[in-house]
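Kindly draft a polypeptide, keeping tokens residue-aligned:

***
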Amino acid sequence: MQNAQEQQSKTCSELSVEGSKKSYKNRVAYSLPQLKLCLVGEPSRAKKLIAIQAPEDAARFLNPLRYAAEEHFVSIHLNARHEVLGLHEVSHGSLSQSLVHPREVFKAAILANSYAIIVCHNHPSGSQVSPSKEDIETTGQLFNAGKLLGITLIDHLIVGPGLKKNTVYSIREHHPELWFSTK
């Protein structure tokens, strides 16, 4: 017990000199469980990274979502060249809604070391593919959270069975004010 108290009173430099051969875990004993983070990627069929320059480029990846029976909210993770690193299903909801929280959207983005993301959800009911009031509010929250975290929200896309193949509704194109707000 006294040894642990002595170590706590020493500076970090003193600890690093004394314990250069010991691991950090052995030098600092926490009374809480320690967490380790890791990213496990699923096998991919892609032979090379594909860049997304426009909403239609992202639409190619989102066609399966167009015919889903329930609402899904996904994020596409991009590197600094806007090449696709992967896709993450953030939420799977009911016929008319899917709950989304910025924490869940950006958790995978942080783990994947994403530079930017594009989020997308579907309107499975076949209704008009345009954003609801909640979609606009969620987009604003995600934009602000991304700005804080340093992960750019490039766009929020909506797909549905009413649109032609490889087309999407871009909230950024129809509501650019969300990206230029001063909040």
Q: What stands out?
A: Residues 1-36 form one domain. Residues 7-19 have pLDDT under 50 and may be disordered.
